Amino acid sequence: MVHNGIIENWRELAEQLRTEGHTFVSDTDTEVIAHLVERELSGGCSLAAAVRATLREVRGAFALAVMCAGEPGTIVAGRRVSPLIIGMGDGESGEGLLASDIPALLGRTRRFWVLDDDQVVVLRPGSMLVTTLQGKEVEPKELHVDWDLEAAEKGGYPDFMGKEIHEQPRAIADTLLGRLLADGTVELDEFRITDDELRHVDKVFVVACGSSYHAGMVAKYAIERLARLRTEIDIASEFRYRDPVLDDRTLVVGVSQSGETIDTLQAMREARQWDAKIMVISNVVDSSMAREADGVLYTRAGPEVGVAATKTHLTQVVALELLALYLAQLRGFAEPADARVLFADLARLPELVERALAPGRDAEVAEIAGKFADTRDFFFLGRHVGFPVALEGALKLKEISYLRAEGYPAGELKHGPIALIVPGTVVVGVATRTHLWEKMMGNVAEVRARGATVVLVANEGDEETAAQADEVLWVPRTHPLFAPVIDVVPLQLLAYHIARAHGHDVDRPRNLAKTVTVE
Ligand code: M6R
């Protein structure tokens, strides 16, 4: 048996099973399921009936698959809350496949179905039968997947992360396609929330986890600045337990590349209870969140196999910028003169990210990474939209290099963290030109004065910034609101090259799952 999730009533079930004579070899919720299935099988029923009966008894979140020696060639699987995708190989003897998400199966098949909550599937070579927990047959929902096999291969790169970083210009262009119109307006397809409903909104909550949360932070700056609409950003696992004030004039935007992250999914469900309008920014068509939301805005990054989010993060920021522009379009731009410049700059993002990734630039970052191969502690600083960039740069380094990396808003440094700056501490600062550049450089001076080694992300040709740095990560300049899309690119590369210098598997960092389907 394979189980992903948490069975909440496992202790009481284990207690009962022990009194019936079952002997446990572990202290896990998963083993309880195996014993329950065994109990049903010994009563003479089929594996499918045994799994259905078991799932009627358990509480919690699970996606599981069970096989038994008595029924070779059969897999029975079921789910509640945690996602489960079914794949079928071609032909009569086509293999049955199960996974949490589509990219895991892309190399094996192009035919996918999604299992809904409290459904059970029986897979045999070439056949599949889906039923409810009561055994009633149901039609499984086929998934439309237009990702191709090539997208799930490394294509000459040593790893998926490297390939996915370099796919970012294309991913951004695809995400903008058909949405940023030539007449200088934004059109959002698949949106399913009417313009009138959006005009009625008086508050936006963005909820997300990890890199998606960092993308969501950018939305707060963009929506408040462009549309003058109050916007809050919340970590999804905190949002649902803190009694947020929501009503039918609230728009809750879940940001999740997978569309399956349990914390974000449950936060959206919580918001639904308060009559809020729900929309999701997801990379996976028909993901659980996409199916449940009132509106969907798909990022079109293609499958992301590397555990560290790169192209999905950038396209999330782009999608959120589109949402901010759309809201401003509906409600009137706070500064109408802005609109034309913004549209032009947004359209240029693919080209600018391409420039940030040019072979020469990549080699420069690799060389800088080489100099820090022995550094154990990093500080990442930024202000305004540079703050989420600093957090994302720090997260990338933590998760694939296993190095301590702290992201801070630079202005907060003097309130405590500056105590940690000693000669040789490496500080990476986002110092591209925004209205807070001077203040940021003031913070850079503070850490330099304490002997820090300073690496700055700076706009191409900005020698004034470079003069304050030991190393420079050059990026093209854009409108400050879009700078997070470009400024994070050298930080992705820095983390990537440092991790590779340490000999780590950047695609499969330890302790991490691509999609986090447990609380
Ligand atoms: O699928 P999601 O966007 O909801 O995933 C959220 C986080 O788990 C994810 O961004 C995670 O932090 C990545 N490992 C970051 O690289």
Describe the structure.
The longest helix is centred in the middle third of the chain and has 21 residues, at 311-331. The protein is an alpha/beta fold. It has helices spanning 10-19, 29-42, 47-57, 160-166, 168-176, 195-200, 210-227, 236-239, 262-273, 288-292, 311-331, 338-347, 349-356, 359-371, 386-401, 437-449, 463-466, 483-487, 489-501; strands spanning 2-7, 60-66, 75-80, 85-88, 96-99, 112-114, 119-124, 127-132, 141-143, 203-208, 230-235, 250-256, 277-282, 295-298, 377-382, 404-409, 426-430, 453-459, 471-475. The model has no long low-confidence stretch (mean pLDDT 93). Helix 1 (10-19) packs across helix 2 (29-42), helix 2 crosses helix 3 and helix 7 (210-227) packs parallel to helix 11. The protein is built from 19 helices and 19 strands. It has a five-stranded antiparallel sheet, covered by helices on one side. The protein has three domains: 2-142, Glutamine Phosphoribosylpyrophosphate, subunit 1, domain 1 (4-Layer Sandwich); 160-347, 3-Layer(aba) Sandwich (Rossmann fold); 355-519, 3-Layer(aba) Sandwich (Rossmann fold). The structure holds 5-amino-5-deoxy-1-O-phosphono-D-mannitol. 5-amino-5-deoxy-1-O-phosphono-D-mannitol (M6R) binds at residues 209-212, 256-258, 261, 264, 307-309, 399, 512, 515-516.
Largest sheet: spatial strand order? 1-2-3-7-8
The Rg value, from CA coordinates, equals 25 Å
CATH fold group of the largest domain: Rossmann fold
Q: Approximately how much helix is present in the residues?
A: 25-40%
